[in-house]
């Protein structure tokens, strides 16, 4: 198990059954495994064809590949591949002279965990392809079409989910309330402007009231002499109806 490699000291060989170099290494590796208890080191081997997730964590690009694991630190062994060299590497602690794998690219990092998941997914797709073509009887092009449609549908679903999450986290401007970044700076100026407008309006109202009062006074003055003239003017002569009748 992967978690077991994070505790204690390990020597792990990654191999494939079809690899000639791996087949040549097996006798020496099995002899070295007999010394595991004496050296207090756990010796294991991983078939990359059966454990793609674990081989994906270590980014195995060549076979065979040997790693030394010590309490969560990983170092790649690049020495001679004999039993004696393996024993000296552990007993004389030659592994201390090798720089450990960076934590960013180490097997326990998030990046390598994602890579392991991709390797496992590829192996699962391979098994599904074999099942569809061999057991179900679907032609090869039909299996590819099924995977293409599945990939397209999965992409659409993931795209909708990402758009929904993006709209929830960062809503569009239409739904945002209007923001005025300079409102605090312009608040005193706007208050002064409103105050000036109020004062000007009050002054205009006072001018209008003064004009109205002056107009009333002028009309009163002009109307008073005419009234006097009408009172002082002589009345027109009238005839007495009694005289005319007589």
Automatic annotation (TrEMBL):
It is found in: Endoplasmic reticulum membrane; Mitochondrion membrane; Secreted. The keyword Secreted applies. It is a single-pass type I membrane protein. Residues 220-232 have a biased composition (Polar residues). Pfam families: Thioredoxin. SUPFAM superfamilies: Thioredoxin-like. GO terms for molecular function: disulfide oxidoreductase activity; protein disulfide isomerase activity. GO terms for cellular component: endoplasmic reticulum membrane; extracellular region; mitochondrial membrane. Residues 191-246 are annotated as: Disordered. One of its GO terms (biological process) is negative regulation of platelet aggregation. The chain crosses the membrane at residues 145-166. It comes from the Eukaryota. Residues 1-95 form the Thioredoxin domain. Keywords: Disulfide bond, Electron transport, Endoplasmic reticulum, Isomerase, Lipoprotein, Membrane, Mitochondrion, Palmitate, Phosphoprotein, Redox-active center, Secreted, Signal, Transmembrane, Transmembrane helix, Transport. Its main location: endoplasmic reticulum. CDD domains: PDI_a_TMX. Residues 199-214 have a biased composition (Acidic residues). The keyword Zinc-finger does not apply. PANTHER family: DUMPY: SHORTER THAN WILD-TYPE, THIOREDOXIN-RELATED TRANSMEMBRANE PROTEIN 1. Interacts with ATP2A2. This is Thioredoxin-related transmembrane protein 1. It comes from Otus sunia (Oriental scops-owl).
